[in-house]
Amino acid sequence: MLRLLTAAAAALVLAALPAAAHEVKAGDLVITDLWTRATPAGAPAAGGYMTITNNGKTEDMLRLVSSPEAAKAELHIMQVKDGVMTMRPVEGGIVIPAGGKVTLSPGGYHIMFIGPKQPLKEGGEFPVSLTFTRAGTVSASLPILGIGAKGPP
After folding, report:
1. Alpha carbons 150 and 40: distance in angstroms, whole number
2. CA nearest neighbour of 68 among 132, 126, 26, 110
3. Model pTM?
4. Rounded CA gap, 75 and 99, in Å?
5. Could you count the other beta carbons within 10 Å of the beta carbon of residue 115?
6. Rounded Cα distance, 27 and 61, in Å
7. Engineered SS bond to 96: which of 7, 54, 58, 92, CB 3.0-4.6 Å?
8. Max alpha carbon distance in the chain (Å)?
9. Which residues share a beta bridge with 91?
């Protein structure tokens, strides 16, 4: 009986590890739900997504992004204006309000990785560096989900 309980507890801990492994803390910021999609060979770009929660009393700002696995990385926003979807780089950065959160997701704010060095393969991870005004530079990895993924489970 003790062995069964020990095995069940170990399985529970192992099941929780992937979720915990994809949470990054930096000062008052907690970064969760990190992910990207697999890309077909020759894709010129890939997107990066996450939720950034600010538990502090002072706003912070995501100013720069980079990855050693892409020629360039930029903060972008997609918006519908006059019935037309547009995507453009974000000037200055993305404010993370005090006591609030910002979600980078398809169809809104996101990271655009331009010129990935190789196709992103499902099951892998894609490194990213995030630079904040107050929290400084944070390294993280984006789990690579399937090509049609809508986000982490």
Report:
1. 17
2. 126
3. 0.84
4. 22
5. 13
6. 13
7. 54
8. 65
9. none
